[in-house]
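Listing S7. Sequence submitted for prediction.
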Amino acid sequence: MSDGILALGTYPIVNAIHGGQRRVRAIQKYYESIGIRYDYACIYEPKAYLPSDLGTHDIPCPKSHFMRQVPQIGDLRTAYECQKSLELLSWLGNLIREFRPRAIQLEQPFLGPLVLRYLQETGSSHPKIIYSSHNIESALKRDLLGKVEVEQADRQAVHDSIMSIETELCRHSSLIISCTDHDASWLRRHSGCPAIVIPNGVDRPVQSEPWMAAQIRDMFGGEPFLLCVGSSHIPNIQGFIDLLLTDGAYFLPSRHALALCGGMATEVVQSGAYGRYSAGHSRRIVPFPKLNDAMLDALKASCHGILLPILTGGGSNLKTAEAIAAGCHIVGTPKSFRGFSEYEGISGLTLADDPCSFRAAAAKALSAPALQIDRSEKDFRERVYWDAALARSDLKYNVEGLLGATHHQPAPRREWAQLRRAARSA
């Protein structure tokens, strides 16, 4: 009998790139460090990942036409298929029989309908459910769809569908994990179980090669430069464009002065706002659309300041944790420090949320002396590293209590045999 956790999500974590993947990997490592087995599997969007990204038990989502007129809702389409697909139900049943978990941890809510369906159809109250929320997804998705000009009726329908999934999952969970106090408060209103807060964090730096630092110095002519990192998530792209590219990024000196990293780099460079002043931007902005963790850590170690142009979104932002740990100047927005309010008094931080103030703060940070912080502040900032953040949390206490109180009861053989026969004949 396993004492472990079976975790489920909508993306693989073999190659952890975006924030959700990195959070899941950090939680996995923490569970393993305290002796709790954590097996992860996902139902992923087929076109989004390469074979090398996939784990042994990861499977593609069946093709779905649910709300096909609406972009950016692959996760909701997966949730819809989870409510009716016998293939997915059989997949989950096989995982439960193989791993015999005492709890299922849902990384985000979208496979919740599948787990609740399994428990209902097998007549079992085990495994228990841990809901690991990364955002209030209903509100986040409604805001995101507003950025891509989806009609109001469709935005509301998406919001209501996801909120129904979130609230139903809250009601059936034995423990909830959230990213911020705000999210935890919302989740508690819909549940009767504990909701603990684990802010987003950052991995400790990897060892970079000396040539990387030398290459970075050459690229920026030995001059101070700013750094902005983000995935191709729409709020990242839109925030950068709105706060930094309005009327051109001429607040920067006419030299390489800003490293733009991650998936957002390609999208920004291809945007109309960048192209309108492409000659000026190409002199000032150096895109790094693809880079490994060692090069990213080398850039963070070399940069003079970090920009966090985040105007929308939910949960908390991993890039904020990276900026705090880096120990350099930071120019962010109040939204970027959601979930990190205890760090709003650190040295070298300026918060602004309009283009004029944000660009002025960025220019001031670039021209300021290099930031010097003392040992006590350095220790305080290191609390954002994943291992430190998880060790400070109540996760170990709550999960060990839940697993210890859970007596695993596999699905009755008769009901499970019926489900397998139905899946084979579908």
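Caption to Listing S7: primary sequence and predicted structure tokens for the chain studied. The longest helix spans residues 152-172. The radius of gyration is 23 Å.
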